[in-house]
């Protein structure tokens, strides 16, 4: 299995250049904001509010990495924002290689998205609502889906769960990816911290990516939080060291036996249950 594609969210050209040089495969500009502040209000999550100008700036950097842009959910024009058609047309004009559609609930929204993109970029629907997960079969019948991603943060909220990786531990991710895999469509899910870090250790999650046949993962904000770390030399050091560590751990995973993978599943399930209880206790 080839290396998993690493994706990193940034609108900073200097950081994008560092990430690309370190081996990040996709530079991710996140233009989604419609409704996001409401559904993630009070959570320690990334709400980027990137712009078309950001897309153009990162396009100028991305000569090895692909440029991924997340648009807004399908919407009509209002006094506050343009329509999905106008938004997607401009994202295409800015040079996106891949466009991600977030927070849809119906197959019709995916169909509309693919029609609006019109083959001018790759399409990447993001499964992050209970409704989308539950109509996955209908969604996968639509022609023109190039890749699928499963967003664990909003999806676990949609299911009323406590911790995003419950979806990995309870088999929801496996159920979804088995259907996507059967259609021959590449897929990825969730985010990952540095190897050795994470409340659920990154190496456990990465091993699950390999067991499930995932081809892509988002480097989480904790991988390199440029809101807190602003020195470019420090950022460069973090990316170089930790992408190298991640790639080295992929070599470890490729040597695992089926029994090793099953043991990892058991640890993920047990550790997730512990984390859920800890969060519930903390929130009492």
Structural account:
- With 284 residues, the protein is of the alpha/beta class.
- The chain has a single domain, classed as TIM Barrel (Alpha-Beta Barrel), CATH 3.20.20.60.
- The chain contains 13 helices and eight strands.
- The chain has an eight-stranded parallel beta barrel, surrounded by seven helices.
- Strand 4, helix 5 and strand 5 (122-127) form a beta-alpha-beta unit.
- Helix 1 runs parallel beside helix 12, helix 11 crosses helix 12 (232-254) and helix 11 crosses helix 13.
- The longest helix has 25 residues, at 258-282.
Strand numbers in spatial order across the main sheet: 1-2-3-4-5-6-7-8
Overall number of domains: 1
The radius of gyration computed from the alpha-carbon positions, rounded to a whole number of angstroms, is 18 Å
The average pLDDT is 94
What portion of residues belong to β-strands? 5-15%
* Rough outline: globular
Number of strands: 8
Number of helices: 13
Terminal CA distance reads 44 Å
Instruction: Characterize the main sheet.
Output: 8 strands, parallel, barrel
Share of helix among residues?
40-55%
CATH superfamily: Phosphoenolpyruvate-binding domains
**Low-confidence segments:** none
CATH architecture: Alpha-Beta Barrel
Class based on secondary structure composition and strand pairing:
alpha/beta
Query: What is the CATH class name?
Result: Alpha Beta
The name CATH uses for the topology is: TIM Barrel
């Amino acid at each position: 299995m080839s290396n998993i594609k690493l994706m990193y969210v940034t609108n900073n050209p200097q950081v994008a250049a560092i990430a690309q040089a370190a081996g990040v495969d996709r530079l991710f500009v996140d233009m989604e904001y419609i409704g996001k502040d409401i559904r993630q209000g009070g959570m320690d999550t990334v709400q980027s509010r990137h712009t078309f100008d950001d897309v153009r700036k990162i396009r100028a950097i991305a000569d090895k990495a692909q440029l991924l842009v997340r648009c807004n959910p399908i919407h009509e024009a209002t006094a506050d924002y343009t329509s999905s058609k106008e938004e997607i047309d401009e994202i295409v004009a800015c040079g996106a290689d891949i466009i991600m559609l977030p927070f849809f609930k119906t197959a019709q929204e995916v169909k509309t998205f693919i029609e609006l993109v019109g083959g001018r970029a790759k399409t990447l629907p993001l499964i992050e609502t209970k409704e989308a997960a539950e109509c996955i079969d209908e969604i996968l019948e639509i022609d023109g889906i190039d890749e699928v991603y499963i967003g664990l943060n909003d999806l676990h909220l949609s299911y009323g769960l406590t911790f995003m990786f419950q979806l990995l531990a309870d088999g929801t991710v496996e159920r979804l990816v088995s259907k996507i895999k059967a259609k021959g469509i590449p897929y990825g899910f969730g985010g990952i911290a540095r190897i050795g870090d994470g409340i659920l250790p990154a190496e456990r999650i990465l091993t699950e990516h390999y067991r499930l046949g995932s081809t892509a993962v988002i480097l989480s904000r904790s991988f390199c939080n440029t809101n807190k770390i602003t020195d470019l030399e420090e950022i460069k050091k973090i990316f170089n060291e930790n992408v190298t560590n991640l790639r080295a751990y992929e070599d470890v995973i490729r040597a695992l036996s089926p029994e090793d993978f099953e043991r990892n599943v058991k640890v993920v399930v047990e550790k997730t249950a512990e984390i859920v209880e800890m969060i519930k206790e903390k929130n009492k």
